[in-house]
Amino acid sequence: MGMIANYQEITDAELERLESCEDIFEAVEEMQENDDRELCDIDKMWDALHFLLTGRSAGKPIEDNLISESIIGSFGISEDEFITGIHADRVNKIAKALQEIDFTEYMENFSMHKFAKNDIYPAIWEYQEEEDMIKEDLKISFESLKKFYQNMAEKGCGVLISIC
Fold this sequence. Notes:
The protein is α+β, with helices and mostly antiparallel strands. Helix content is about 50%, strand content about 15%. A 5-stranded antiparallel β-sheet has the order 2-1-5-4-3, with helices on both faces.
């Protein structure tokens, strides 16, 4: 198992209630089980995608950077678990920023060595024979995230992020 990133639909009012919730992790799990909420699961590629798009690990977020926020959130909700949120107005801006990215340009500069050197999660960068598969995983993760944010912007929703 590893640390998997999940992005889910949430209202701004629900985000505010979560901030004062006693058992945030349990509340988030219950929300994830609700079939009426749209979810985006990019599995373990969250740090790799952050590094590819920003040049920095997700462990070193970039303040006021829409692309960084798309992966790790705008504000923390839990001190015990990695649970963050993004309000609906910011989701709209993030969706537009993601639409403007030419992912092919980023993939042209892809280097397994750079990911390994920067200790990017997950630790898969020494498997050179899997480079094409890893690139495909990154592309699928990006496209899924981009589509998810577009859907959330159209719905006027916020985003709840859990990386556990």
